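3.2 Worked example (two chains)
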Amino acid sequence: MSSRTLNHLADPIRDHRQQRKSRWRRLTPGRQALLALAHLRNGDTYSRLAAGFEIVIATVWRYVQEAILLLSTAADGLEAAMRRIRLLTYVILDGTLVLIDRVADQKPYYWRKTLTSWDERAGRRRRGRASGVGVGCAARRRS
């Protein structure tokens, strides 16, 4: 983890502690940032983090929740994020590359089963829901 990433979270933690006039904590702001980012980024469990940082599980939970709160207050609102996203071609959400311009080709996105009926196996395709009760009976009588 880069020192820039750690400092990005450690600085608000340090300011928050000064605001609350917290006298002492088990971990320094940098170590608390490392603990929270290890949980958020790698998915380490609270018990594993507690053993690694030599603190109790309740303290790990409290430190992670405090870091999440500080990160969420520093984040942009939904409207600002959407304004920024509209200017981009691609967006990465949770490590997944998402193409934004999905409507450009004007093809609707359907799940295949909702458009075809039960008699697709016989080589015939009909539009309509497969779960429709009358659709299957009428299709059998006509063929």
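3.2.1 Second chain
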Amino acid sequence: MTAAAKKGDPRRAEDTESKAASGGQRCCSRTFPNVLSCILSLLCVAYCILLSVRTSEFQDRVFALETGKGELYYYRAPAFSVDQLNSMVQERVDELLAQVRNHSFHG
């Protein structure tokens, strides 16, 4: 309380209380953006760490594949068995070889 509020001036006391209340609002209005920016900064750092880990995993997989130590993933075609696919490839290879032979004899 100020000296005017002690002397019994009610208007001064109300002004002092309203200034204190608005100061609290200013404090809260400054705190929310600070907290929000802090949270967003932490999320960005966490995302960067996640990307770094993922990139490292991909680099390790590529290195393993390049050196021949990596696991190869084979995806099966849903409509064909492996034997059917092998026979289709063999037929196509035979056709292409026949075309090359015919072209080399005629050319």
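3.3 Remarks
The chain has two domains: 1-73, 74-107.
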